[in-house]
Amino acid sequence: MPASLSNPNSSVRRLLAVIRELLGNPSSGFGLIVISILLLTALVAPLLAPYDPNIVNLDNVLQPPNAAHWFGTDELGRDIMSRIIYGSRISLTIITIVSVIVGPVGLLVGTTAGYFGGWYDTVMMRITDIFLSFPSLILSLAFVAALGAGLENAIIAIGLTAWPPIARLARAETLTFRNADYISASRMQGASSLRIILKSIVPMCMPSVLVRITLSMASVILTAAGLGFLGLGAQPPLPEWGAMIAIGRRYMLDNWWLVAFPGGAILLVSLAFNLLGDGLRDALDPKQH
Questions:
Q1: How far is residue 117's CA from residue 226's CA, in Å, rounded to a whole number?
Q2: N or C end of the chain: smaller count of CB under 10 Å?
Q3: Better pLDDT: 14 or 125
Q4: Each residue of 56-106: pLDDT tens digit?
Q5: What is the CATH number of domain 3-288?
Q6: Contacts of residue 92, Cβ cutoff 8 Å, sequence gap at least 6
Q7: Residues 205 and 107 sit within 8 Å (Cβ to Cβ)
Q8: Domain-by-domain residue ranges, the chain?
Q9: What integer is the mean pLDDT of 189-193?
Q10: How buried is residue 289: exposed, middle or buried, by Cβ count under 10 Å (0-12/13-18/19+)?
Q11: Max CA-CA distance within the chain?
Q12: Average pLDDT for residues 101-127, to the nearest whole number?
């Protein structure tokens, strides 16, 4: 195993160097700040939100942005700013659970296919190709249609469709060093295939996979918003950003703020993950060092 992976001090120094590079790059620094704000907002939403996101107030229906309601109110008089703040919790939940699903699944499929090769590699990659042949939103729609509408089923559907690019990347990475000297030495010492994959191959795949997961989160957010927009994701009265746009589009010609602010939140967070992913790719690319 490379010394950088077996030396904890070296790993810590590398991590600090990556963080410094991310903060030193204006675009990736912006992405990191926005995602940090999303995390903080989700954690302390009750303290930040000026109103209860689900309280109906028919005296304040469709109020434009003003001093009392900075982002205006919706068709039921609910404060849009409060709903967007609480909606960050839903977005963060989706991102976290999907990452937990696609990371291990993609790594398992990709590293084992690349390491063992043969018929197993062929079968797993053809399954991966089938998933990749469909747009993620269309495939997610199919899974949600089978599982039923709802936030939990939407998260499962997105997780089931987001792992193939990770698997492809992990397989490509595995093929580049499965016959490396330190892998061959581990085999000669009697290490099992499982131990070699977990201890030697997976750590080598992690930087590229981490970058790919970060870049995929923008697509995950858009897919979740698309499912919410179609009424198949989070169900009312949950303040999910896509569902807010779906309701607001009926009034958007005269009440632009109903779709502008939730849409802006989706755009900002998606852009932040793309910028952070690009920064991670540059920071973790050995050619840059």
A1: 37
A2: C
A3: 125
A4: 988 889 999 999 999 999 999 999 999 999 999 999 999 999 999 999 999
A5: 1.10.3720.10
A6: 38, 39, 42
A7: yes
A8: 3-288
A9: 83
A10: exposed
A11: 77
A12: 92
- Mean pLDDT (the chain, rounded): 87
Which has the closest alpha carbon to 168: 114, 130, 219, 215? Answer: 114
CA 105 from chain center: how many Å?
14
CA atoms 188, 189, 194, 200: torsion sign: negative
pLDDT band at 10 (very low <50, low <70, confident <90, very high): low
Token duo for residue 29: 């620094």
Helix boundaries (H) for the chain: 3-6, 8-24, 26-43, 45-48, 80-116, 118-132, 136-147, 151-162, 164-177, 181-188, 193-196, 202-229, 241-248, 257-284
- Residues ≥6 apart with Cβ < 8 Å to 245: 225, 228, 229, 258, 259, 262, 263, 266
Which residue type, as a one-letter code, is found at position 212? R
The two structure tokens encoding residue 270: 């998606």
Q: What mean pLDDT do residues 222-234 have?
A: 88
pLDDT at 11 over 70: no
